[in-house]
Amino acid sequence: MGADRLQKLVAAAGLCSRRQAEAWLRDGRVRVNGALAQLGDRADPACDRISVDGRPLELPTSTLTLLLHKPAGVLSTCHDPHGRPTVLELLPPELRPGLHPVGRLDADSRGALLLSNDGALTLRLTHPRYGHRKTYRVWVEGLPRTATLERWRAGVPLDGQPSLPVELRRLRHHRGATLLELVLREGRNRQIRRTAEILGHPVLDLSRIAIGPVPLGDLGEGAWRRVEPGEWGPLAVAP
User: Rounded mean pLDDT of the chain?
Assistant: First the structure.
């Protein structure tokens, strides 16, 4: 394999994204041959002993990507110190090693979530510069006016920072609530819920129905399936 940057190797092991691996290096969590590693260091897995938090780094022999229908109340993380249910617990034990969520859905939301041990795919899907599309169906309180929807489409600033434009269409209105379909090209923390609150139409239910060209389809809540390379290949290529 040859020597490579440590953040790339840690991400390739499926432990986290490359950006998170860089943070781990800065925090002193990575060692090579017993010595504390620095950001920018390189190592060769064939002859160097690489460890993260004292555990040997194990690179996968093959890549695996799954599509999961995350239920509400389940955390998009590998482990929760408070013992709350996580997405990995929905998978067979033999598939869990090396897998990590690609991006997040907040605990109250449900729908499409990718899990992978492929660090390169994780980087492509989570780095803002690639702007991959994610599609949502959202029930909000009330009946938003046309002007309100136009404001949402233009992008509502959050935390003093501008938001990218949003593709949005109103699907139907029923018993005091409105169903919207949104397509986002960024994934800021609880972006849809916070925007809806600012506009005066809080979210009642939120489901992600597609990540790029990979649809949730008829996959039931809590169920998962393998994503074949032909499906996620376009996701790993910058637009």
Answer: 89
Residue 71 to residue 119: CA distance in whole angstroms = 25
Question: pTM here?
Answer: 0.75
User: pLDDT tens digit string along 8-57?
Assistant: 888 877 677 778 889 999 999 999 999 999 998 999 887 889 999 999 98
Q: Is 237 helix (H, G, I), strand (E, B) or coil?
A: coil
86 versus 235: the higher-pLDDT residue is 86
The answer to whether 22 touches 42, Cβ cutoff 8 Å, is no
pLDDT at residue 129 is higher than 70: no
Count, residues in the chain: 239
What amino acid is encoded at 67 in this protein?
Answer: L
Contacts of 106 (CB under 8 A, 6+ apart): 76, 189, 190, 193
Q: Which residues are part of the catalytic machinery?
A: 106
Q: How far apart are CA 48 and CA 65, in angstroms?
A: 27
Do residues 50 and 58 touch, judged by C-beta distance below 8 A? no
How far is residue 60's CA from residue 165's CA, in Å, rounded to a whole number? 38
Bigger pLDDT: 118 vs 67:
67
